[in-house]
Amino acid sequence: MSVVVKISKTYRRPIRTYSNLFASGPSEKQNLAYLMGGCLLYFISSWPFQARKAFENQIPLEGLISGTLISALFVAPLGFYLISIVFHILAKAIGSKTSGVEIRLILFWAFFAIAPLMLLRGLVAGFFDTKLQYSIVSGLCLSVLVLFIYCGFKGLSR
């Protein structure tokens, strides 16, 4: 099944989609692909805002884009792995038998699945700057991310 179809199914039936992901057997290379795909789409979603800032402040766009590239594709994955370690420690503390690979699948797929909302957030930031509209869309992104993480743990328990 293609990734686009999986993402659309995640928005319609997130628990069932996670159950299918777990049934196919989570692997570390698959998790890394989801994480890097999400980070790449996050990087692309930041372009409109970076272009706006470069135009408003008369600074080179290449400098802004290269800084975002380094943070999105090199630093952010390390942060996501640290977050997954924290989730794994918390899961073990409450007595869960969830493996690290499963927790990473939950987190990385949730981040990858909100890519359409991240792209919308980038467009809103490019058009309206960081005003009320941007805050609304950012809140929507965060709430959907939390919902997908919750559904991932529910799908794991099925």
Order of helices and strands: HHHHHHHH
Low-confidence stretches: none
DSSP helical segment count? 8
Q: How far from one another are the termini?
A: 21 Å
Biggest beta sheet summary: none
- The 3D shape can be described as elongated
Total of domains: 1
Strand content: under 5%
Mean pLDDT: 92
Helix content: over 70%
Number of strands: 0
Q: Radius of gyration over alpha carbons?
A: 17 Å
Structural class: mainly alpha
SSE diagram, text form:
Blueprint: H1 3-12, H2 14-23, H3 28-45, H4 47-57, H5 61-93, H6 100-113, H7 115-128, H8 132-157
In short:
This protein is mainly α.
Descriptors:
mainly alpha
What do you see in this structure?
The chain has 158 residues and is mostly helical. The chain has one domain. Helices cover 86% and strands 0% of the residues. It contains 8 helices and no strands. α1 packs across α2, α3 runs antiparallel to α5 and α7 packs antiparallel against α8. It is elongated, with a radius of gyration of 17 Å. The mean pLDDT is 92.
